[in-house]
């Protein structure tokens, strides 16, 4: 078991959670209202969405409580510190996935089609955390915590799950000529998720 409770079978989730935690802890004072690659949301709203999504995965797996507010309509107002919002969500998701039987045929997930094989389901959870870590980092002037090593398996996951949820969760994919900047798996993943790799506020 790792420090945060995810068993070694899910290193992709560990890495994605670490990326999101790094990005949130690195937000400078006064940057929480800054715009992000999620055009309608500021940094606070992306954090609320990301934390809510992690709770959504935990709830789907365990039947426990989900997020207190709709992750797709984040208020932009925190009643506590960013860390106090994020850490319980990460712990809930990590703990839920730690109890999943890796050999199960399917597990429940909060995205269409409602169930996925365990490895793909945990990949979807990791993808959500990692891409929003990138959103928060680039919006606040940090070094993006998304490497090609992490992006490569996430790109494989994305290609299997994104199309049924693209209309409400992700922008249209960008081709190399439209997304333009950067090469490698990180840039390819970002463009596939409708993000410009060289985006700045």
From TrEMBL:
Q: Which InterPro entries match?
A: CHP03086, DinB/YfiT-like, Maleyloyr_isom, MDMPI_metal-binding
Indicate the segments forming the Mycothiol-dependent maleylpyruvate isomerase metal-binding domain, all copies: 14-137
Q: Which domain of life is it from?
A: Bacteria
Name of the protein:
TIGR03086 family metal-binding protein
High-level lineage: Bacteria, Bacillati, Actinomycetota, Actinomycetes, Kitasatosporales
């Amino acid at each position: 078991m790792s420090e945060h409770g995810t068993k070694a079978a899910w290193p992709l989730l560990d890495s994605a959670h670490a990326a999101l935690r790094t990005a949130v802890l690195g937000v400078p004072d006064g940057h929480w209202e800054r715009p992000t690659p999620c055009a309608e949301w500021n940094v606070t709203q992306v954090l609320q969405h990301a934390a809510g999504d992690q709770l959504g995965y935990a709830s789907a797996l365990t039947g426990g409580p989900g997020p207190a507010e709709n992750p797709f309509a984040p208020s932009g107002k925190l009643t506590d510190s960013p860390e106090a919002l994020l850490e319980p969500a990460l712990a809930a998701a990590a703990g839920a996935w730690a109890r999943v039987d890796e050999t199960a045929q399917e597990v429940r997930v909060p995205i269409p089609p409602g169930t996925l094989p365990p490895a793909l389901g945990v990949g979807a959870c990791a993808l959500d955390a990692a891409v929003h870590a990138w959103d928060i980092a680039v919006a606040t002037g940090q070094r993006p915590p998304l490497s090609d090593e992490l992006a490569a398996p996430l790109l494989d996951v994305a290609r299997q799950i994104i199309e049924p949820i693209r209309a409400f969760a992700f922008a249209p994919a960008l081709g190399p000529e439209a997304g333009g900047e950067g090469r490698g798996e990180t840039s390819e993943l970002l463009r596939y998720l409708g993000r410009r790799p060289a985006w700045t506020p």
